[in-house]
Amino acid sequence: QVRLQESGPGLVKPSQELSLDCAVSGGSILANEYYWSWIRQPPGKRLEWMGAISYFGKTYYSETLKSRTSISRDITKNQITLHLRSVTPEDTAMYYCARGTIVTVTKESTTRGMYNDWGQGTQVTVSS
């Protein structure tokens, strides 16, 4: 069974860059046909799809966040990393990584049932 474990700093100051890791176990991030997405949920708000990286390394981003977001991978660590620049308090949210097929990317899906696996999430608070 594939397991995804998100980790990050917990607290970030406004204007800083946020970096979150998603460690994958039980399967390879290179496995054919899988796409690795980042999704977040601010308190009291809906889930928001942020972007994804494919098994062959292509990245996809939400139109609203693409100017501040990048997603990378470390094949040796079997890990996906989210970078979010110039954070504000509005970026306070629970951040999740998830594994799915291309459909989850084309639909920018936030529906858990569309994903094969979904991490437990990591809370990020942006505050001075």
Question: What does this protein look like?
Answer:
The chain is mainly beta. The protein is 4% helix and 46% strand. It has one helix and eleven strands, in the order βββββββββαββ. Strands 2, 4, 5, 6, 9, 10 and 11 form a seven-stranded mixed beta sheet that branches. Strands 1-3-8-7 form a four-stranded antiparallel beta sheet, with no helix packed on it. A hairpin with a 4-residue loop joins strand 7 and strand 8 (79-84). The radius of gyration is 13 Å and the shape is globular.
Which key features would you list for this structure?
four-stranded antiparallel beta sheet, seven-stranded mixed beta sheet, mainly beta, 128 residues, 11 strands
Count the helices. How many? 1
Largest sheet: 7 strands, mixed
Q: Tell me the overall shape.
A: globular
Portion in strands:
over 45%
* Poorly predicted parts: none
Ends distance: 39 Å
| Total number of beta strands | 11
Element pattern in H and E:
EEEEEEEEEHEE
Share of helical residues: under 10%
Determine the structural class based on helices, strands and strand pairing: mainly beta
Rg measurement, Å: 13 Å
Report the average pLDDT across residues. Answer: 97
